[in-house]
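As agreed, record passed on underneath.
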Amino acid sequence: MVNLCFYHPSKNIGGVQVLFSTISNSSLARKKYQTMIIDYPDGYMAINKIDDVKLIAYSNHVLPVVPDNAILVIQADLMLNIHQKLVIPKNTKILVWYLHPLNLKFCLPFYRNFQIGNWQLLKILSRTIFYFDYRKAKLLLEMSHKRKSLLFMDGSTFDIANSLIGFSCDQPNFCPVVLNE
Protein backbone atom coordinates (compact mmCIF):
# COMPACT_ATOMS: atom_id res chain seq x y z
CA MET A 1 0.00 0.00 0.00
CA VAL A 2 1.30 3.47 -0.91
CA ASN A 3 1.92 5.97 1.89
CA LEU A 4 0.00 9.22 1.53
CA CYS A 5 1.47 11.76 3.93
CA PHE A 6 0.03 15.21 4.69
CA TYR A 7 2.39 17.86 6.05
CA HIS A 8 1.10 20.97 7.80
CA PRO A 9 2.13 20.99 11.46
CA SER A 10 0.12 23.55 13.38
CA LYS A 11 -1.55 23.95 16.71
CA ASN A 12 -4.06 26.34 15.15
CA ILE A 13 -7.28 25.57 13.34
CA GLY A 14 -7.26 26.73 9.74
CA GLY A 15 -8.46 25.70 6.33
CA VAL A 16 -5.42 23.59 5.44
CA GLN A 17 -5.46 21.74 8.75
CA VAL A 18 -9.17 20.95 8.36
CA LEU A 19 -8.75 19.94 4.70
CA PHE A 20 -5.74 17.66 5.28
CA SER A 21 -7.35 16.16 8.38
CA THR A 22 -10.60 15.47 6.53
CA ILE A 23 -8.86 13.86 3.56
CA SER A 24 -6.53 11.72 5.69
CA ASN A 25 -9.46 10.54 7.81
CA SER A 26 -11.71 9.79 4.81
CA SER A 27 -12.47 6.18 4.06
CA LEU A 28 -11.87 6.87 0.35
CA ALA A 29 -8.22 7.78 0.99
CA ARG A 30 -7.70 4.95 3.47
CA LYS A 31 -8.96 2.31 0.98
CA LYS A 32 -6.14 3.08 -1.44
CA TYR A 33 -3.41 4.52 0.80
CA GLN A 34 -1.84 4.21 4.21
CA THR A 35 -2.67 7.76 5.28
CA MET A 36 -0.33 9.68 7.56
CA ILE A 37 -0.06 13.16 8.94
CA ILE A 38 2.98 15.08 10.07
CA ASP A 39 1.91 17.30 12.93
CA TYR A 40 2.78 18.33 16.46
CA PRO A 41 1.55 15.65 18.90
CA ASP A 42 -0.91 18.26 20.22
CA GLY A 43 -1.57 19.84 16.81
CA TYR A 44 -4.99 20.13 15.20
CA MET A 45 -4.56 17.23 12.75
CA ALA A 46 -3.05 14.96 15.43
CA ILE A 47 -5.89 15.60 17.85
CA ASN A 48 -8.52 15.02 15.17
CA LYS A 49 -7.07 11.98 13.44
CA ILE A 50 -8.77 8.61 13.59
CA ASP A 51 -6.96 5.46 14.72
CA ASP A 52 -6.20 4.23 11.18
CA VAL A 53 -4.22 7.38 10.38
CA LYS A 54 -0.57 7.25 11.45
CA LEU A 55 0.94 10.28 13.18
CA ILE A 56 4.52 11.24 12.40
CA ALA A 57 5.32 13.57 15.28
CA TYR A 58 6.70 16.96 14.35
CA SER A 59 9.12 18.72 16.66
CA ASN A 60 11.10 21.92 16.45
CA HIS A 61 14.17 19.99 17.62
CA VAL A 62 14.18 16.77 15.56
CA LEU A 63 13.44 16.48 11.85
CA PRO A 64 10.63 14.00 11.14
CA VAL A 65 11.39 11.32 8.55
CA VAL A 66 8.97 10.79 5.68
CA PRO A 67 8.50 7.07 4.92
CA ASP A 68 10.00 5.54 1.77
CA ASN A 69 7.90 5.56 -1.40
CA ALA A 70 5.48 8.10 -0.01
CA ILE A 71 3.44 10.81 -1.65
CA LEU A 72 4.04 13.89 0.48
CA VAL A 73 1.29 16.52 0.18
CA ILE A 74 2.30 20.04 1.16
CA GLN A 75 0.71 23.45 0.90
CA ALA A 76 2.40 25.73 -1.61
CA ASP A 77 3.64 28.33 0.86
CA LEU A 78 5.66 25.75 2.81
CA MET A 79 7.56 24.53 -0.21
CA LEU A 80 10.14 27.28 0.08
CA ASN A 81 11.89 25.52 2.97
CA ILE A 82 10.41 22.01 3.14
CA HIS A 83 13.81 20.27 2.94
CA GLN A 84 14.92 22.15 6.06
CA LYS A 85 11.94 20.82 8.04
CA LEU A 86 11.81 17.14 7.03
CA VAL A 87 14.02 14.22 6.05
CA ILE A 88 12.67 13.27 2.63
CA PRO A 89 13.86 10.06 0.92
CA LYS A 90 14.76 10.34 -2.76
CA ASN A 91 11.91 8.01 -3.74
CA THR A 92 9.28 10.32 -2.21
CA LYS A 93 7.00 12.23 -4.56
CA ILE A 94 6.27 15.73 -3.30
CA LEU A 95 2.86 17.02 -4.32
CA VAL A 96 2.63 20.81 -4.03
CA TRP A 97 -0.97 21.99 -3.66
CA TYR A 98 -1.55 25.71 -4.10
CA LEU A 99 -4.61 26.01 -1.88
CA HIS A 100 -5.19 29.71 -1.29
CA PRO A 101 -4.49 32.79 -3.42
CA LEU A 102 -2.55 34.48 -0.60
CA ASN A 103 -0.13 31.58 -0.06
CA LEU A 104 2.67 32.93 -2.23
CA LYS A 105 2.24 36.68 -1.82
CA PHE A 106 5.28 38.47 -0.49
CA CYS A 107 4.30 41.00 2.14
CA LEU A 108 5.90 43.21 4.71
CA PRO A 109 4.06 42.42 7.96
CA PHE A 110 3.24 46.02 8.81
CA TYR A 111 1.91 46.78 5.30
CA ARG A 112 0.11 43.47 4.71
CA ASN A 113 -3.46 44.81 4.43
CA PHE A 114 -2.37 47.64 2.14
CA GLN A 115 -0.23 45.41 -0.06
CA ILE A 116 -2.84 42.70 -0.56
CA GLY A 117 -5.11 45.04 -2.52
CA ASN A 118 -2.31 46.77 -4.40
CA TRP A 119 -1.08 44.49 -7.22
CA GLN A 120 1.37 46.98 -8.68
CA LEU A 121 3.09 47.44 -5.31
CA LEU A 122 3.21 43.67 -4.79
CA LYS A 123 4.81 43.17 -8.20
CA ILE A 124 7.42 45.84 -7.50
CA LEU A 125 8.21 44.44 -4.04
CA SER A 126 8.39 40.86 -5.30
CA ARG A 127 10.99 41.84 -7.86
CA THR A 128 13.04 44.09 -5.56
CA ILE A 129 12.89 43.59 -1.77
CA PHE A 130 11.61 40.02 -2.08
CA TYR A 131 13.55 39.14 -5.24
CA PHE A 132 15.22 36.01 -3.88
CA ASP A 133 11.93 34.68 -2.45
CA TYR A 134 10.19 35.53 -5.73
CA ARG A 135 12.87 33.73 -7.76
CA LYS A 136 12.81 30.71 -5.47
CA ALA A 137 9.00 30.50 -5.60
CA LYS A 138 8.99 30.77 -9.38
CA LEU A 139 11.67 28.11 -9.81
CA LEU A 140 9.91 25.74 -7.44
CA LEU A 141 6.55 26.23 -9.17
CA GLU A 142 8.22 25.55 -12.51
CA MET A 143 10.10 22.52 -11.18
CA SER A 144 6.97 21.10 -9.52
CA HIS A 145 4.98 21.59 -12.71
CA LYS A 146 7.71 19.95 -14.80
CA ARG A 147 7.60 16.94 -12.47
CA LYS A 148 3.79 16.83 -12.70
CA SER A 149 3.47 17.48 -8.99
CA LEU A 150 1.82 20.90 -8.88
CA LEU A 151 -1.88 21.29 -8.21
CA PHE A 152 -3.99 24.44 -8.04
CA MET A 153 -7.16 24.55 -5.96
CA ASP A 154 -8.93 26.81 -8.47
CA GLY A 155 -8.53 29.50 -11.10
CA SER A 156 -7.77 32.25 -8.60
CA THR A 157 -4.69 30.45 -7.27
CA PHE A 158 -3.43 29.91 -10.81
CA ASP A 159 -4.15 33.55 -11.75
CA ILE A 160 -2.14 34.83 -8.76
CA ALA A 161 0.79 32.53 -9.61
CA ASN A 162 0.64 33.81 -13.16
CA SER A 163 0.27 37.53 -12.48
CA LEU A 164 2.42 37.94 -9.36
CA ILE A 165 5.11 35.30 -9.80
CA GLY A 166 5.09 35.10 -13.57
CA PHE A 167 4.44 31.35 -13.61
CA SER A 168 2.61 30.14 -16.67
CA CYS A 169 1.71 26.84 -18.26
CA ASP A 170 -0.70 25.72 -20.97
CA GLN A 171 -2.54 23.14 -18.90
CA PRO A 172 -2.49 23.73 -15.14
CA ASN A 173 -3.67 20.83 -12.98
CA PHE A 174 -6.63 21.74 -10.82
CA CYS A 175 -7.71 19.76 -7.79
CA PRO A 176 -10.80 21.25 -6.19
CA VAL A 177 -12.06 19.42 -3.15
CA VAL A 178 -15.27 17.44 -3.18
CA LEU A 179 -15.77 14.87 -0.44
CA ASN A 180 -18.98 12.96 -0.27
CA GLU A 181 -18.99 10.00 2.08
Summary: The two ends are 22 Å apart (CA to CA). The chain has a mean pLDDT of 85.
